[in-house]
Write a structure and sequence with these properties.
Number of strands: 0
Structural class: mainly alpha
Helix content: 40-55%
Shape: elongated
Number of domains: 1
Largest sheet: none
Strand content: under 5%
Number of helices: 4
Distance between the termini: 84 Å
Order of helices and strands: HHHH
Radius of gyration: 18 Å
């Protein structure tokens, strides 16, 4: 009986400007502390979905797991996440170099 051949759905993540912006926002919210925990988790989930092709799998090691717990060289998911993290950090550094510095809002003159 003919059987449909299954193709692996492993996708290479694309580091787009949107993904870099989501990653930067997640890092900002994480740095604000426990008062912004829910917002930070939502931002992390959005970043993970962008990296994973729209799917968030709870059992897969993410870039934020690598940030929190470090790299496990025996876990292929951890190695993949560490590579994604390295690429995101490079893209974020490049975006900060290109972006003009934020200027302060001028005070109104009376």
């Amino acid at each position: 009986m003919p059987v449909k051949r299954r193709v692996s759905k492993a996708r290479s993540s694309v580091i787009s400007p949107t993904t870099v912006a989501l990653y930067a926002r997640a890092l900002e919210l994480r740095a604000l502390g426990p008062d912004f925990r829910d917002e930070a988790l939502d931002a992390q989930a959005a970043c993970e979905r962008a990296l994973g092709g729209g799917i968030r799998r709870l059992w897969v090691t993410t870039i934020f797991d690598v940030i929190d717990h470090g790299l496990d060289p025996n876990d292929p998911d951890s190695v993949r996440a560490a590579e994604q993290l390295r690429r995101l950090d490079e893209a974020l550094a490049a975006a900060k170099k290109v972006a003009p510095p934020a200027t302060a809002i001028p005070e109104p003159v009376s």
